[in-house]
Amino acid sequence: MESHVECTQCGVLMTTWCADGSPTRYYQCPFCKRTLCSAYDEVFQRGALARRVVAPVRVPAASIPEASREDKRWHEVKGRANRWFARLEAEGSRCAPAVAVAVAARVPA
Ligand SMILES: [Zn+2]
After folding, report:
1. Domain, as residue range, for 76
2. Strands (DSSP E) found in the chain
């Protein structure tokens, strides 16, 4: 079931989208343009910026602007970059002990 997210500043439901094949979902407030990512679930748990709601808040649909195509595209690219950096970091931490051992082996006793 897809959850609904409400912007705590504006009190409206945030528009949502995700890239094809990606588990990451983005939420954007149509009024203040704040954009959040499902990868950082603690933001929703604390409720400072946004909160998950069970039943959608009733707001006239015509008054809610959609996230722009550029915003959606930007956050897809940003999500891809975040996944890439996370993979690099994970690969780097796996390689780091080997590098430390190799460096230590070159230091004369
Ligand atoms: Zn807002």
Report:
1. 4-106
2. 4-7, 15-17, 26-28, 35-37, 50-53
